Each structure stands twice: as C-alpha cells, then as structure tokens.
Amino acid sequence: MDFFTACVWAAGIAIGIAAFGCGIGQGMGLNGAVQGIARNPESSGKVTVTLLIGLAMIESLCIYALVVALILIYAHPQAAEIIKTVAAVAK
Amino acid sequence: MGFDIQQRMIDFVIRSNWYIFIIATLLGFINTPFKFALGILCGGLLVTVNFHLLRHTLYKAFDASKFHASQIIVNNETVDTINGHSILSGVIFKYYIRFAISGIVIFTLINKNIVEPMGLVIGLSVVVASIMAATALELTRLIFKEAV
Q1: Are strands B85-86 and B77-82 parallel, antiparallel or unpaired?
Q2: Half-sphere exposure of B93 (CA within 13 A, CB side)
Q3: How far is CA A56 from CA A51, A61, A80, B53, B127, in A?
Q4: Distance between CA atoms of residues B10 and B58, nearest Å
Q5: Of A17, A63, B43, B48, which has the fewest beta carbons less than 10 angstroms from its beta carbon?
Q6: pLDDT, tens digit, for every residue of A8-56?
Q7: Which pLDDT score is estimated for B84?
Q8: Which residues on chain B are in Cβ contact (under 8 Å) with A33?
C-alpha cells in the first residue's frame, strides 16, 4: 500500500469513527432533552441551555476529526519528505 | 438557582466567544505568518457563527411560549411533537445544513491551501475554550461560595 492510499484510508476511517461517536452522543443528548421538555415544558429554558453547551462541545470534536482527515489527505506536513524517503528506499 | 447558573454560563460563553476570537485573531496577525493568522480568523469566525446559529435553532425549537407538548403515535411509536410538527426533524435538518456548509468551507480552506491547518485548528477551538473558561469560572465561584 503506497503512502497516499494509506492516508486516504486513515482519513476515511478517522472521520467515520468520529461521526459515529458524535452522532450517537448528540442523538442521546437530543433524545433526553426532548423527553425532558415533553414531560415538563416549564423546564425548556434550563434544558435548552445545557443542551446547547453539550451539543457545541460534541460538534467541535467532529469538526476536529474532519480537519485532521482533510490535513491527512490534502496538507500532510511531512508528505514531501515521506515521498522522497519511499522513493530512495525503492531505488 | 440552577437556572441562574446556566443562564449566566451561556451569557458568558456568548460574550467570551467574541472576545477570545478577537484576541486570538489580533495576536495571530501580530505574531504569526499571514496564512496562520488567516486560519485563526476563518476557524474562529466559522465556529462562532455556527454556535450562534445552533443557539438560534435550539431556542426557536424549544421556545416555551410556543410550546404545547403533545405526543402522537406513529407506527406504534410515541413521538414528541410541538404544535403538530416533530421537534427533531427541524433541528436535525438545520444541523445537517449547517454542518455541510462548515465542511465545505473547511474543505475549501485546506484543499486550496488558503490557510495554515494548525491555525485553523486553533481558530476552531474558540468555542471550546470559552465553554471551558465558563465552566472554570462557575467552579471557582462554587468553591469560594462553599468556603465562605
């Protein structure tokens, strides 16, 4: 497997796992909030504030994973050196 | 009392988002290369606007004055509704639109090499930093209150 294939695989798996985890986390949070408000509508203010902070934190994790995946594919900092090393080893 | 803390925290986060964003961007443009500072600016702006849109969506969805909680049964499952519309569909649809736009913007910034990726990561951490700061502040207040 060459270097770029490995990078694309790593990026795909990374964003897949991150989206899976964040999706489950956000789904659970939203489920709890909706159930809580449906049972006690007066608590909507409290629940919304807590939900907002939680969702923002979870969402930022997924955005980090997206950035890391994109860095792996398009802006790998050591890409040039690794290609040189691989080419030298191949010779 | 609980609601006071939460409201205070969210007010603090909303204000400190902009303060941290402005300070980080200014420090970036003064101390770091242009592309790095541009990364902080773009990342910070993206997450701050995202946070405000998320807040707007959630407050609109869970607005107590418009709230008439009811439950309907769809395919033998109980679904929570507000005024006959599903709560989840609106929030999730807006979430996906927002997230798709963020993804396209970040993709363009990195793909076209417009910004330095590390600067972008620092910019994207603005909201996390302000939430951490708000939590630390509330914890400090709580500890000192208990000590007194």
Answers
A1: antiparallel
A2: 6
A3: 8, 9, 36, 11, 8
A4: 13
A5: A17
A6: 999 999 999 999 999 999 899 989 988 998 898 888 888 888 888 888 8
A7: 47
A8: 62
Cβ-Cβ contacts under 8 Å, B111 against chain A: 70, 74
Domain that holds residue B66: 2-147
How far is it, in rounded angstroms, from Cα B91 to Cα B98?
Answer: 11
Cα separation, A75 vs A67, in Å, equals 10
Domain count for chain A, please give it. Answer: 1
Establish if A91 belongs to a structural domain: no
Question: Does B131 contact A35 at a Cβ distance shorter than 8 Å?
Answer: no
Total count of domains within chain B: 1
Name the pTM for this structure.
Answer: 0.77
Give the residues of chain B that fall short of pLDDT 70.
Answer: 1-3, 63-88, 91, 148
Can you tell me the distance from the alpha carbon of A58 to that of A3, in angstroms, rounded to the nearest whole number?
31
Answer for the pair B29, B96: CB distance below 8 angstroms, yes or no. no
The ipTM, to two decimals, is 0.73
Q: Inter-chain contact A59–B117, Cβ cutoff 8 Å?
A: no
Q: Give the CATH number for residue A22.
A: 1.20.20.10
Residue of A nearest to B55 (CA): A52
CB B114 within 8 A of CB B38: yes
Please tell me if residue B87 touches chain A, with a CB cutoff of 8 Å: yes
